[in-house]
Amino acid sequence: MVSRRVRDIEYAIRDIAVIADQVKKTGKQIFNLNIGDPLKYDFETPKFITEALTNASYNGKNFYADSLGVVELREEISKSLKRKDNLDINSDDIVVTTGVTEAIYFLLAAMIEKGQELLIPGPTYPLYINNTKFYDGIPIEYELNEEDDWEPNIDDLRNKITNKTQAILICSPNNPTGVLFSKKKVKEIIDIAGEYNLPVLSDEIYDQITYERDYVSPASLSKDVPVIGMNGFSKAHLMTGWRLGYLYYHDPENKLIDLKEGIAKLARARLSASCIAQYAAIEIFKTKSNHTVEMVRSLRERRDYSYKRLKQIEGINCVNASGAFYLFPKINLKELRNWKTDKDFAIDLLKKTGVCTVYGSGFGKFGENHIRLTFLPNLNTLEKVYNHIEDFVK
Ligand SMILES: Cc1ncc(COP(=O)(O)O)c(C=O)c1O
Question: Cα angle at 86 between 85 and 92, to 5 degrees?
């Protein structure tokens, strides 16, 4: 027996891996382009960070931490928000979590009652859909418009606000499109949120992984609208497996007092995020290192190569990524004719070539007719991957 809550969870990014395992058993080489984890490729956690983790443990930081997070880490995060985004966020307004994943759990647990709605960008990262449903809420997708470089369709967003809407979520740089929302669109979303008295939730996990366009912090564009930012150490610091992140409240008019207290209770009820990981993370802010810049440099090369190859394949169109490490090409199924849906395409591609992507419909209805590919593998592997995709489509 299993509860409805659990039965309804879907996570295409990992579901496709089950099929990949079956294909692997037949002896085929698998190219994993499905999971957004740089550490599964040739990126490594910087040595000074792993050493800091070992030292934290040797130095006895092995206890339950403060439920809201180690004070010194929250102070460092507060300073970094000032440096990066010119935000004045008091360390008391920061909660350390087990990744952005837990931050989203906390926020939706505290905000969503049965039948209430969360506005999320579509195509969407599946976690937002799953978690909203988990709390008996209704995820409502506002369109990201591929014709407009995947920018949010503001009219669609406005039309979808109802008296049940609890918040508007922004994810920029975006997963799965790999595109940053422009400053203009972010500001328009903030203004609409202000008009309807709604808070904005901002998933900023890829804020430091950008290419041509600069990241804009939604909170920095808001004078009075509450913005709850979520970020973490997984991607920019190559620490996916450590499970460490945080949320922060930009709340100039003190509208979030109840929400903050609710989340503090949730945080206490789950004791704490990993204590040794938090002590190690403090060192990231105290140490000069260019690991993020280096990572972005090699990702840019891999993106350029992947985009160039994709563009040459007939039947596939793609908007180039301006952030994160995903491309989300459209598969013209009508023109290609061999496959009915994006899922058929992705599964057939996997079975015939070993190239494991994620079918776009796994990112909600706006993702249909697409696949998501990471450009995390090295250039050698990418060359093999795109040769396979090219032959397969032909
Ligand atoms: C948009 C987005 N948010 C959150 C996460 C998860 O972040 P964390 O590792 O901090 O839980 C991911 C992971 O892929 C992501 O793509």
Answer: 95
Question: For 89-142, what is each residue's pLDDT tens digit?
Answer: 999 999 999 999 999 999 999 999 999 999 999 999 999 999 999 999 999 999
Of 272, 279, 294, 324, the closest CA to residue 49 belongs to: 279
**CATH 3.90.1150.10 region(s) of the chain?**
4-44+291-393
CA of 205 to the centre of ligand 1 (A): 6
Q: Cα of 235 to ligand 1 centre, how many Å? A: 8
Beta bridge partners of 326: 374
What CATH architecture does domain 4-44+291-393 belong to?
Answer: Alpha-Beta Complex (3.90)
Answer yes or no: is the C-beta of 99 below 6 A from any ligand 1 atom.
yes
CA neighbours closer than 13 Å in the CB half-sphere of residue 173: 23
Is the full-model pTM beyond 0.85? yes
Class of domain 47-286: alpha beta
User: Looking at ligand 1, which residue's alpha carbon is closest to its atom 16?
Assistant: 175
Cβ burial of 28 (10 Å; 0-12, 13-18, 19+) is middle
Residues of the chain with CATH 3.40.640.10: 47-286
